[in-house]
Amino acid sequence: MQSQRGQVRVQLQSVGPASHSSKASAAPGAPAGGSDLSLAEAIAKIPAGTEDRTRYERDSFHLWVDADKDGCGTRKEVLIAEAVKAPAQGSRCALSSGKWLSYYDEVTVNAATKLDIDHVVPLAEAWDSGASKWDADRCEQYANDLDADRSLVAVTAKTNRSKADRDPAEWLPPVASAQCTYGADWVGTKLRWKLTADDKERATLEKLAKGCSDTVVKYEVAP
Q1: Backbone phi and psi for residue 199, each to the nearest 5 degrees, phi listed first
Q2: CB-based contact 166:198 (threshold 8 Å)
């Protein structure tokens, strides 16, 4: 299945690898007729909150489901959608060959096994920021969000694991030209899921926004 995120990915890929690190970035798609927000304007819309990781367990989020029953779980759907060169697809959605660009570090990868699927806003961070109040179905929906182009991204395992569950106050992509895009992806995801931001996180995002004046954020609130 090629979801909305896959269709947008194809458009990004058609203009080459630089599209991932350009300053203009669309976080989850805006409703028809909606206005674009600057990164600074979007940050201002995130509600304030304090982080609380009480009772967090990663297993609260059911990962990599096959929502459309086509044999490909969420991880494989993202890999297929984001491939610069389409992988061969075998039995049970086994992927071989193919090529991907990890935009966090601008590394080209030729094997799906070397990629992680990053939740732009990590599961633990989402829990801290409001997901602790969700039921199991809502947590699963968040963990497998294929309807927003920028909530899940395929990146090198090295960068994903260096990030872990840290927010922008503690981690930004190592390639400076990717940071405006990442900021828009982060903020758009927080707004899509009505998650909060703590003071340090917000201050870092606001500082980042000063250098990303032409970055555009669009989002659609998750149903």
Answers
A1: -65, -45
A2: no
b/e code 172-184 from CB counts within 10 Å (16+ = b): bbebeebbbbbbb
pTM: 0.85
pLDDT in tens, the chain (223 residues): 433 343 333 333 322 333 333 323 443 333 333 358 999 999 999 999 999 999 999 999 999 999 999 999 999 999 999 999 999 999 999 999 999 999 999 999 999 999 999 999 999 999 999 999 999 999 999 999 999 989 999 999 999 999 999 999 999 999 999 999 999 999 999 999 999 999 999 999 999 999 999 999 999 999 9
Which of 6, 22, 1 is closest to 148 using CA atoms? 6
CA 203 and chain centroid, separation: 21
**If you write DSSP's letter for every residue of 118-153 in order, what string do you get?**
EESS-HHHHHHTTGGGS-HHHHHHHHT--SSTTSEE
Sequence-ordered list of residues with C-beta below 8 angstroms from that of 35, at least 6 positions apart, any chain: none
Q: Please state the domain extents for the chain.
A: 4-217
Q: Compute the distance between CA of residue 60 and CA of residue 62 in angstroms, rounded to an integer.
A: 6
